[in-house]
Amino acid sequence: MPPNTDLFTQQGPQRHSKGEDVYAMIVGVALIVLGIVCLHAAGLVTGGVAGVALLLSYIFPIAPGWLFTLINLPFFLFARAAMGPGFMIKTIIVSSGVTLLSLLAPHLLRFAFIDPLFAALFGGTVIGMGILSLARHQAGVGGTGVLTLWLQKKRGWNAGRTQLGIDCCIMLVALLAVPPTQVLLSAVSAAAMSGVLITFHRPGRYTGY
Questions:
Q1: Handedness of CA 187, 192, 195, 196 (dihedral sign)
Q2: What are the sequence ranges of the domains in the chain?
């Protein structure tokens, strides 16, 4: 007898447990910080708030983790208004986790050498997977990610494509502080990050919540 392929669709969306939400947030934070460490080691930036934090860290003597939180502060209020208090609380927890782990990262992980192209592809991809892990559990990293998730929820705009448009603007600004070759590789990282969301976070594809 062939398997019932409609078994899962008949059950409908399945709510995530609190434990699953916590685990997804831990995984998301770890992947985002790993990607940031890779990109920072290669002198690159990427898209979203992580990219802005990296870019500013090359201009000001402030750790990317602290900049990540400072940039996110006004977006926390938007997260509450646009996505609800639950999303805002999770986003604050994630942002704090990214800041803390980023500050600890130099004591936990160091790269003696990393190829810039590999850093761009790998770093951008793992950041995208971290954001995906969070988005599937109604959380975000703040910043432009809150805006793109809200636009997908309200307007049906693909979060990855919207993020890609924002990232193009970030790359243009990066030309003021980062050599063109590094900006080109940074654009690769941003495309890799957005590609994850374009591929795996399409409206209607995922029914869990």
A1: negative
A2: 17-200
